[in-house]
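Sequence dictates fold. Below is an illustrative record:

_____
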Amino acid sequence: MTEPWLENPARRDVGEVWFTPPSGAPILVKLIFTTGRLSIQVHPDDAYAKAHHESNGKTEMWHILRAEPDAVIGLNLKSGVTPAELRTAVGTERLESMLRWLPAKAGDTFFVSAGTIHAIGGGLVLCEVQQVSDVTYRLWDYGSGRELHVAHGLEVATSGLGSGQRWPRLLGFGRQLLAECAYFRTERIAVSGTGRISARDRTAICVVLEGSGTLAGQAFGPGDGWELPASETDWPVSSAKCTFLTTCLP
């Protein structure tokens, strides 16, 4: 499940691979590999996280790299679920049936604003971009026995109407804008032959989604990542065919 992004000849269980953010940068990029459904959870916004945890809040996005045929993600509650019904379902298996489960396939992008109840299903490989924050409120974990955070979760849960599937906006020259918000801007960049990646006036995190070649003369393959410092000079790419995901501050 982890190849080609992570060599794993021993077939160990790997849940996440983190690309360490530049020092002080408020964004984090991960590769996530799932075999089963992850917990149903919600994250606070900046104001709530600061007041209760001295932390950033967490808004995030998911870009699907691989998906089994029946793979799904949970995003928002089903239409018609009332606050009273939510309160009685949190912490129980009934919450799972109240979540809106959406099909997920390779190439899909989902945006998850703070306050949105969500879950990642099994059989997925995805690239996640998020605010740097450790604050997660689990609302249901399928009876695993791990701690739930019902009170905090109910306080921050919103309708999540700003969250949902995102369709890429074509920017030209192989670039697609996947998501843009107050915290990050994420593009997917395809190169066939030669091309250039620009960081310009902001530091960017660049992850190879597929293909091999060289970036500024350095060899790369799937799953490799770099910090690209702000520069007036673009970074040259050479590859028969490759795709990058780049994330920077907006």
